[in-house]
Amino acid sequence: IPHSILLTRTSAAVTSRALRNVREQLDKAAIDVFSTSIVERAAFRDIFDFGGLLSDLRSDQVSNVDRAIENARAFAGEVIAKLKGGTVAAKVA
After folding, report:
1. Is the entire prediction scored with pTM above 0.85?
2. Is the pLDDT of residue 92 over 50?
């Protein structure tokens, strides 16, 4: 069954040494990893408090909603490309 690893709760600002190490190990093992990771953002946490969709969150209640939506769209686009057999070289933080 084709599969890929999705890295989640990553930092938008810096890539930690631990994350670089994990990524190197996955690359050495030839395990496919999504180039888009899900960044640790308040919007992804707060959606459980407010309910609905990311697009329903209000920027006056939750910070960086637009960046979370951009991140989710990049991931969704990469999933669709993989399902269609293509590759996507987009990297969104």
Report:
1. no
2. no
**Alpha-carbon distances of 55 from 21, 71, 77, rounded to whole Å:** 34, 12, 17
Alpha helices in 1-93 (DSSP H): 17-28, 42-50, 65-83
Nearest residue to 7 (alpha-carbon basis) of 85, 75, 88, 54: 75
> Who's near 41: CB < 8 A, 6+ residues apart?
12, 63, 64, 67, 68, 71
Q: What's the rounded Cα separation, in Å, for the pair 12 and 14?
A: 6
The 10s digit of each residue's pLDDT in 11-64 is 988 889 999 999 999 999 999 999 999 999 999 999 999 999 999 999 999 999
**Residue 77 per-residue DSSP state:** H
| Measured distance CA(5)–CA(54) in Å, rounded | 23
